Amino acid sequence: MFISRGTTKSRTIPGPAARILWQEFPGNNVINVNTDLVAPTGGTQVTESDSNFWPPPKGKHGRIQSDYGSEFYTRKCELIQTKYPFVTINYKAVPNFMPRGRISGHVMLANAFGSTSRGLPVKGKQQQMVPQFPDLSSSRSQLEVKGTIAVAACAPTNQIAQTASAVGELLQDVPHLPGIELWKSRLHAVEAFAAGGTEFLNVVFGILPTVSDMTTFYKAVHKVDKAVDQFIRDSGRTVRRSFYFPTERTETDEELVGDYSPIGSTVAYNDYYAAPSYCFPVYKTRRHRIVERDVWFNGAFTYHLPEWYDTNSRKDRMALTAKLLGAQPDLTTLWQLAPWSWAVDWISDAGAFVKNLQSLISYGTVMRYGYVMETTTVTDTYYAGSVVRGPNPDYSAGFSPPYPAVIPITLRTTTKKRIQANPFGFGLSWDGLSTIQQAIVAALGISRVAR
Known about the structure:
Elements: E1 7-13, E2 17-27, E3 30-40, E4 43-49, E5 72-79, E6 87-91, E7 101-105, H1 140-154, H2 159-171, H3 177-191, H4 198-205, H5 207-234, E8 239-244, E9 248-261, E10 282-302, H6 314-325, H7 331-337, H8 341-359, E11 366-389, E12 409-420, H9 435-443
Antiparallel strand pairs: 1-4, 2-3, 2-7, 4-5, 5-12, 6-7, 8-10, 9-10, 10-11, 11-12
């Protein structure tokens, strides 16, 4: 089986039957029936499926929240012809070689059946002729490679990486620790002159520049915290994406070694009507093949923010920031509301936040579901090529040219495949998830749905 679990069903696709009747008339109203063959030439279809429930249950807002799909495989083999042209060939007697006779039915067909079109038939019996249906679909590993390419091409921006970068850039606007310590020392020095005039203190000790620096610091804190909050709010949201690869199409034409036309032919004679076959040429069989392949991806992406990304004191800092930015701070307000050990702690927390984000970027974007689908269609047309053997001169009196045309046969093979991704990509097994990956998919409520 192509899929890992499920059931296999098969059916026969009805197709035309090849009827070949070879009769001889040696005289005195005698009729010898040498061949009376009925050969079914239908196709088949094999399907492997996990029999998914439909429609699947829906979650909030009527959207499907879990992955209720599965892998799938089907291969349909069919003949394009619904019936074969009926031909009647009357040939003359050739003294010392054969009496006059008749070949009727579907005798002038190109050999799309390989060796199964040969073999001496039993009179009045059926002999199955099996068309040659190829499977040129991609292997599982090839589809996994395309799935990886599709995920990389259409996954939404990795929000963890984006936030880590944004916070890192915002932190560049925050004064370095030595500057903060300088603010602290300035404020300590000013405490001794608390009763003095504000304007004098601002001039002598540079308090106005300090207030300006502190305001800049608060604004930077506000931007960083806003980015982090947005990141937290978006955690767990689903983004659906599709990706279509360009259609692949190849066209070839080749000679098939060892296969001769019309059906039943060898280089020497025809198995179905041996003696009169010497009156007709034998052709090489050629195959014109067109292969068309469509591959596409559908998936739903999300990410999870573990609880330990946030710190216990961040809400208090946000409230403080909002309060300070909403008024013109003076020296007393700054000192009362902002003990500067907090500033040092905030920068340490923010730095740790970025570091933690960067350490989990590879786990950031996961898929609630992801599938790569492929449809491969192979259209083979078998037809007569060059003459490999002409009529035998000893039998030339039996039939005069032009010779009956060999009828082309067209077969079509359609293969459809669907493979399923792990939440972290294609080609990965659930059993191979790390502890962190297992915790993330559990937090997002992603699991293998039992069917």
